[in-house]
Amino acid sequence: MRQLAVVLLMTAGTALAAGDNLSTLAEPDPARAATGVEQGWLAFSVPVRAGTRSPCCWPGQWNQPTTMECRLQDEQHSHGTRQDSPLTASVKFYAQLREGQVRQLLLAGPDCPVDATGTQVTELATVDETATLDWLESLARSGRNDVDHQAMYALAMVAGDELLFEIARDPGRPDELRRQAFFWLAQSDSEATLERLTRLLTPEPGANPIPR
Questions:
Q1: 93, 78, 86: which is closest to 53 by C-alpha?
Q2: What is the 3-state secondary structure (H, E, C) of the chain?
Q3: Distance CA 31, CA 132 (A)
Q4: What pTM, to 2 d.p., does this model score?
Q5: Tens of pLDDT along the chain (212 residues)?
Q6: Listing from the earlier edge strand, what are the strands of the sheet with 39-47?
Q7: In angstroms, rounded to a whole number, what is the distance separating the alpha carbons of residues 210 and 42?
Q8: Separation between Cα atoms, residue 115 and residue 15, nearest integer Å
Q9: CA 136, 140, 145, 149: dihedral to nearest 10 degrees?
Q10: Cβ–Cβ under 8 Å, residues 78 and 115
Q11: Are 105 and 155 in contact (CB under 8 A)?
């Protein structure tokens, strides 16, 4: 069972560019907060798993990164981490909202500059860990490639292995969601996780089939 916790907003989180239209909302559930924001960006910080590298955005091709910066006023085509990205204990989520629906999801580490000039940003003062995981899983199940892959990437950063295993072995969840859970479990540095994953991928006769 997931542990219920309320996480205070990280004061060391990514700083927005000066002059932004920034407001604060006292709603710890990102899903409920999103329904109350018609347009703009929803922002909040959460702790991440040990060994997580700091994500950011960069212009140009994904394999030719230059200056690292997320610009909320532009569409981001290259986003993620590099081998030389520093480790981080927290990330800040930026969810672009239109009519209460998430259209884009970005993750930024504390060292990632975020330019929000000309955009409306609503920042959550606190965030509920369990509600955040539920919200991310619902986005991962959305079927929209521009959102679901980023949501699963975020889940892999935030969630423990138990949730990913829960998703991976559940035949009631969409196959694509289960495939992504297998993918992120396979990226683990934990020998115990990889051994458990190997056992799951070689099930006994009659067990739930693994999505291909």
A1: 86
A2: CCCCCEEECCCCCCCECCCCEEEEECCCCHHHHHHCCCEEEEEEEEECCCCCECCEECCCCCCCCCCCCEECCCCCCCEECCCCCCECCEEEEEEEEECCEEEEEEEECCCCCEECCCCEEEEECEEEHHHHHHHHHHHHCCCCHHHHHHHHHHHHHHCCHHHHHHHHCCCCCCHHHHHHHHHHHHCCCCHHHHHHHHHHHCCCCCCCCCCC
A3: 8
A4: 0.80
A5: 333 333 333 333 455 654 458 899 999 999 999 988 878 999 999 999 888 899 998 776 555 556 788 989 887 667 888 778 899 999 999 999 988 789 999 999 998 999 998 899 999 999 999 999 999 989 988 877 678 888 988 998 898 788 889 888 888 888 888 888 899 889 887 888 889 999 888 866 655 556 66
A6: 21-25, 120-124, 39-47, 90-98, 101-108
A7: 35
A8: 9
A9: 70
A10: no
A11: no
Cα separation of 82 and 103, whole Å?
24
